[in-house]
Amino acid sequence: MAARNLVRTSRFIAGWLVLLAGSARADDPDAARAEFFEAKVRPILVERCFGCHSAQAERLKGSLAVDSLEGLLKGGDLGPAVEPGKPDESLLIQAVGYEDDSVKMPPKQKLPDAEIAVLRQWVTGGATFPKTAAEPVARVQGIDFDEARRHWSYLPVARREPPPVADASWSKTPIDPFVLAKLEASGLSPSPPADRRTLLRRVYYDLIGLPPTAEEIAAFEADRSDDAYAKVVDRLLASPRYGERWGRHWLDVARYADTKDGVLMYGDDRIRPYAYTYRDYVVRSFNEDTPFDQMIREQLAADVVAPGDEPWRLAAMGFLTLGRAFDNNVHDQIDDKIDVVSRGLLGLTIACARCHDHKYDAIPTADYYALYGVFAGAEAPLELPLIDDPAKTPDRKTFEDQAAAKRAEIRKFLDDQYALLSEEARKRGGDYLERAGTTPADPLETAVFFMSLAPEDLRPPIVARWRRYLKQRAVPSDPVFGPWSDLMKRDEEALAAEAPAILAAWAERPVGTDPGSLNPLVASALNAATIRTKADVARAYADLLRRVYEESKSSPPDPSDEARRQVLDILQDRESPSYFPRSQTRAYMSRGEKDAFGGKTVELDRMTVKAADAAPRAMVLVDADEPYTPRIFVRGNPAQPGDVVPRRFLRVLAGDEAKPFANGGGRLDLANAIADPANPLTGRVIVNRVWMHHFGEPLVSTPSDFGERSNPPSHPELLDDLAARFVEEGWSLKNLHRLIVLSATYRQASADRPDCRKVDPENKLIWRANRRRLDFEAMRDTLLFVSGRLDATMHGKPVDVANDPRNARRTVYGLVDRQSLPAVFRAFDFASPDASAERRPLTTVPQQALFGMNAPLVVEQARALADRPDVGGATAPPEAIQALYRLILARPAEPDEVETAARFLRSLADEPDGSTLAPRAQLAQVLLITNEMMFVD
Predict the structure, then answer these.
(1) CB under 8 Å to 558, separation ≥6 — which residues?
(2) Which of 69, 422, 440, 885 is the S-S candidate for 893 at Cβ 3.0 to 4.6 Å?
(3) Bridge partners, 103 (sequence order)
């Protein structure tokens, strides 16, 4: 039974892991599986298995090698280790699951359930194992950066001369010659221009996510001036609806959600009270055409660059702070920040270098931890900054007064706990030293989760730091821990006999605090102790630490007493194992205090969510008091810190002599490096994203990965020219939109042409426009718009658009619940908010049709349409039919359509009344779910 429960749990966890791994490459299953292997599977094999079952092992145990697919398929003494696609028949899964008492791997301790789930899902998916994965883990010196910089995405961006074309008269913007030249080279020609109605509907949906009315279509068809279309484009770009449409596209990249992802959080407790301020920032920034380089700086470092007279821009930092909490695993939280910045802004999968050098791109692990240090040195303040007047309304002032008292209570609780826990860590430094020096490492010391049951318990992470500290300090030249080094490396049985000689040799050293000498306090402590065992050595040092620390509290050491200061620094210095920053206080609290603190913060959040008018606040980060000095975590394990690395930009982009970041923790330096016009990636990446939303397909098929595994651009010269223009013209997204939608390329009809399809079936050369289905937001907003119920109110707290059919706000303001994404969102391919989404999947499933036929939202809009005066007030059915066609499809009904619709209405009138909808409302519902309504040509 336990095994079956484990399997079920593992499969559940694995499903979510695959969803996360696949979100970056929903269009490329092979790449998604390879990415899943590199991000999830390979680190487990390296950490758990390679020591005994790889080329790195001193002796291959069981004749089994797991560092290649060939080795796994060949297997060892017991046969093949993996049966691709068959986890229950794979010895590897049986062994790690402890399903057979005769084979349990690893033998000393079973893997966590989540890791077993990863391995099971990997085997289920076919056990993808990229060839390059068998390379050694450390290959920093093997990266040829000069060769890497020859990749198309790292080459400098520059304006390109339009290529010569045979039909120069076709071009309307600089985009067109690049497209036409490719078509002509393949013996193809562009499609004719779309008719004016189709073009208007297309550009309306592209720019504002709503359809034009019948009156707007008629006006455009009647306006035959040369700039008629350009005037429409300018009007749409100036509309506040534009920011709502394009802001939502960016929220996909930013993995926006309104909720936390804590375990067992329900109702108001799961909502992040101020998440919406980031969404509002994005909408407003797009509407104001904030230069994109400025948006980059604000989203990474608004606390530094946001102008004082525009406090709303502080909310930009939701880009960093609105990711998953990962059950308070700070390392995963930082990894998530690195991932959203690198994939979202640079089109690079830097997070793949967390455990080992990137297997494809020129990104060594050192570069990953250089960025890790940038974000590890930033923390959320207890009190978030206000971005609007807290006394604007009476309700707001009342709430803010109540909240201020609650914040003061939380602040005092945190201050008291930090003082208590810091003091306890220093005061008990001797206890920690004894534990670290005399006991084997405990798995809890390296676990993500640890929970002390009582205040007197030693904190496992502090014990782990003491172990690392001793490894670093216990060297023969150290004046404090030099004797420790000599004594502790002896065999326990021989120590009693050899200790006097060792101490005598140390007594001959000069007394002092310099390397090579012996601290006199240490000399006295060891001479006074009886050393028979290693525990005696640890106790002597522990007693010394306790005594010096207690004496310091009653009598601070004289500044000239260097020996005492040297010992005291072991407990009080920022490099001390006993030190932890204030921002990590909660992690060190005892069970009761941790629960109490969590309860207080949840109560404040709940108060904020329920408040009628809480003043908006920005979810910012601020630099810690001291910049974080990053170290490479060996194989991604934070319990094994390796070499120190400076906080700096990627070597492949910044050059071999990349300068360390010097401003604070480095977030602004990082933003400046990303937004540098000389950076070849940023402009290309954002231009490619914009192009994708206008044409349905990007120029680079992997919008969030411009690395070695990406396909080259379909139109490389066009991509470069657009990126160069974009940067030269001030990073204006509206100018970019204008250039694209005014082009002849964009204005083509979408009708199929078999001769062109035969040459270019995927339309990569853009010989026609792509017909596209409305995404979820545009579909829902259109239903509300044509029924006359769309609420144009902007900004503010999220609303329930999934379960409340009467809610008429635009979908961009709907609550995005990361922990339980509504079924209707998932049915219509809404982007997963768990990770940065490069593009949405496109599925056709029964739930979509069932939604149109049964959803209360559709029924409500059909009823509202039937109640409109020009429909419900029409005395003759043909008049009502024409009104419905005009409102829903923005055109008059054809005679045969009128006849068919009238026959439909008569059939309903003759049948018994078994429907909740009147006949005209039923006709409205039919029109609402037609392809003509749901697709854009």
Answers:
(1) 564
(2) 885
(3) 100
268: DSSP letter: G
Q: How many CB atoms lie within 10 A of CB 712?
A: 14
CA distance 35 to 350: 12
- pTM of the shown model: 0.82
Which of helix, strand or coil describes residue 623? strand
Closest Cα to residue 282, out of 311, 313, 260, 307? Answer: 313
CA distance 299 to 247: 14
d(CA 475, CA 449): 32
Tokens describing residue 282? 């994005």
Query: Has residue 564 got a pLDDT over 90?
Result: yes
Alpha carbons 868 and 888: distance in angstroms, whole number: 12
Q: What is the pLDDT of residue 587?
A: 83
Phi, psi of 498 (to 5 degrees): -90, -20
Neighbours of 208 (CB within 10 A): 22
The H or E element that residue 400 is part of is: helix 394-427
Residues 6+ apart with CB under 8 A from 371: 338, 341, 342, 350, 647, 670
Burial label for 581, CB within 10 Å (0-12, 13-18, 19+), is: middle
Rounded mean pLDDT of 224-240? 97
Angle between helices 292-305 and 276-287 (to 10 degrees): 130
Q: Left (φ > 0), alpha (ψ -120 to 50) or beta: where does 839 sit?
A: beta
- The token pair that represents 347 in the structure block: 């089109």
- In this prediction, residue 102 carries a pLDDT of 65
Among all chains, which residue has been given the structure tokens 């768990």?
A: 834
Contacts of 623 by beta carbon, 8 Å cutoff, 6+ apart: 303, 377, 378, 664, 665, 667
**Hey, how many other C-beta atoms are within 10 angstroms of the C-beta on 560?**
7
Helix (H, G, I), strand (E, B) or coil at 378: strand
Answer whether residue 448 shows pLDDT above 60.
no
Q: Can you give 874-914 as a three-state secondary structure string?
A: CCCHHHHHHHHHHHHCCCCCCHHHHHHHHHHHHHHHHCCCC
- Checking phi first, is residue 655 left (phi over 0); if not, alpha (psi -120 to 50) or beta? left
Rounded-to-10 torsion of CA 691, 696, 699, 700: 110
Tens of pLDDT, residue by residue over 721-760, are: 999 999 999 999 999 999 999 999 999 999 999 999 999 9
One-letter amino acid for residue 418 of the chain: Y
Q: Which of 53, 115, 121 is nearest to 86 (CA)?
A: 121
* pLDDT for residue 16 is more than 50: no
**What pLDDT, on a 0 to 100 scale, did the predictor assign at position 17?**
35
**Token pair recorded at residue 781:** 């907003």
3-state SS class at 518? strand
Residue type (1 letter), 254: A
Which residues neighbour 424 within 8 Å (Cβ) at sequence distance 6 or greater? Answer: 455
Ranges of each domain in the chain: 2-133, 185-240+689-748+758-771, 272-388+623-679, 428-580, 776-936
Residue 358 · residue 600 · CB < 8 Å? no
Q: In this structure, what DSSP letter does residue 643 have?
A: E
Q: Is the peptide bond before 460 cis (omega within 30 degrees of 0)?
A: no
pLDDT attached to residue 290: 98
Q: Is 501 helix (H, G, I), strand (E, B) or coil?
A: helix
* Mean pLDDT value across the chain: 89
Q: What's the pLDDT tens digit per position in 29-50?
A: 666 777 788 778 888 887 788 7
Instruction: Round to whole Å and give the CA distance between 559 and 543.
Output: 23
pLDDT of 13 > 80? The answer is no
The residue type at 762: E
Radius of gyration of the chain (CA): 33
What confidence score (pLDDT) does residue 450 get?
Answer: 55
Contact in structure between 277 and 387 (CB atoms under 8 Å): yes
Integer Cα distance of 74 and 69 in angstroms: 8
